[in-house]
Design a protein that fits this description.
By secondary structure, the protein is α+β, with helices and mostly antiparallel strands. 46% of the residues lie in helices and 13% in strands. The strands form two sheets. The chain has a four-stranded mixed sheet with strand order 1-4-5-8. Strand 6 and strand 7 form a beta hairpin. The protein binds flavin-adenine dinucleotide.
Length: 407
Amino acid sequence: MSAKDDTKTFRAETKAWLQENFPSSLREGGAQAILGGRKVDEDTARDAELWRQHLVDQGWGTPTWPKEYGGAGLDGNQLNILQDEMAAIGAYNPIPGMTGNGITMVGPTILDYGTEEQKRSHLPPMARGEIYWCIGYSEPNSGSDLASLSTKAEDNGDCWIINGQKIWTSGADISQWCGMLVRTDSSAKKRDGISFMLVDMNQPGITTRLIKLISGNSPFCETFLTDARAEKDGLLGPLNEGWSVGKRLLQHERFSQTGSRSSAEPSKAERLEDMAKRYVGTDDQGNLADADLRARLVDHLMGARAHSLTLQRIADEARGKIEVSATASILKNSATTVAQTRSELVLEMMGHQGLGWEGAEFKPGELAATRGWLSGKAMSIAGGSFEIQKNIIGKNILGLPETTQQG
Ligand SMILES: Cc1cc2nc3c(=O)[nH]c(=O)nc-3n(C[C@H](O)[C@H](O)[C@H](O)COP(=O)(O)OP(=O)(O)OC[C@H]3O[C@@H](n4cnc5c(N)ncnc54)[C@H](O)[C@@H]3O)c2cc1C
C-alpha cells in the first residue's frame, strides 16, 4: 500500500472512531465549558470522564509516545490528521492539562533520559492523566542565571536529602511529583554540579505557599524543602549532568509554548478582523474605519500567519521525528510576540469594554480579554525570558560569542 493510501485509511479510521466515541453532549457546548473551566452538569461530567477513558485506551492522550508507555506511536503526519479530525468535530485532548507540566515537559524528558524502569513507572500514569507534575527550577536568587541554584541534595546512603527553596513553582500545591534541579556537587563549576531529580511531593519535608498574580489567579507557589527525600532511583540522567537534562526539558517547554497544537482545541473563535469591524466600525467601502489600526492589524495577521506556517513546515520536515532543539527559542519568542500583540490589539479595539474585571456591563469575551491580556504578560518570562531566548539564539544558533551567564 502506498504512503498516500495509508494516510487516507488512517484519516477515515480516525474520523469513524471519533464519530463513534466523542460524546454528543460534549459537542454541544460541553467541550467549550470544560476547557473554559466552567461548571458542567452531572451528565456532561460523566461523558467527559468517559471520553478521557476512550482516549487513553486508544493511546491518543499522548499520541506520539510509544505504545508500551501509554501512547499510540503515531508519526507527525498521523498526529496532524488526528488533530485536524478532532478539531473538525470540536473534540479536545484533556490529558496534557490533567498532568500540569507532565506531558509537555517531564514526560518527554523521561523519554529522552530515563531508565527503562523510570519510563515504565512514570509514563503510563501520566498518559492516563492521573499524576500532576510540577517543575522545581527557579529559586529566589536563581531565575535567568539558573546555574547558580543552591538547593542542595546530599546522598545519605539510602536516599537523597534535599534542603533549599524553589519559587514560581507552577501547580506545586496540587502536584504529586516534581522534576527538580538540585546541587549535588558544590565544589564543581556551577553548571557541573547540578543533577535532575524526580521528587515525590507528598511528604512532610515539602511545603508550599501560593503566590497571587495580577490576573487574580494563584497558579504558582513558593516551595520549601526541609530534609525532603528523593529515592536513589529518582536521579534522571547521570549524576552531576543535570544541566544538560534540565536544558532539554526547557526545550520541550519552549516547544510547547510555540502555539503548536499539542492538544487539539476546538477553535470557533471570531476572526480578529471581524471583531475589529464590530467594535471600531467600517468606512463607506466596508473597510475597518481606523486606517492606522488597519495597518497594524494587517501587520499582526501576517506575522501570525508566518509563525503558523513556520510551525507547520517544521512539523512536515520532521516527518514523524518530533525533535526539539535550540530553534524552540526562536519559535517561543515569535509565539510570544504574536500572542502579546494580539492581546494589545484586542484591548485597543474594545476600548473601555476591554478593561473590565467583573460586572454585567461586560460580555464574557470582554472579561476574558482583560484577563488574557494580563496573564499573557507571563509568556515573555515563563520558561526563560524573552531576552534569555535572544541570548540562546545569538550563541547557539548564530554562533555569536557568549558575553553573559558564564559559569
Ligand atoms: C507564569 C510563570 C510560570 C512559571 N513556572 C515556573 C515553574 O513551574 N517552575 C520554575 O522553576 N519556574 C517557573 N517560572 C519562573 C521563570 O522560569 C522565571 O521567572 C524566569 O526564568 C526569569 O527569572 P526571574 O523571574 O528570576 O527573572 P530575572 O532572572 O531576575 O530577570 C529579570 C529581567 O532581567 C533580564 N535578564 C536577566 N539576565 C539577563 C541576561 N543575561 N541578559 C539579558 N537580560 C537578562 C530578564 O530577561 C528579565 O527581563 C515561572 C514564571 C512564570 C511567569
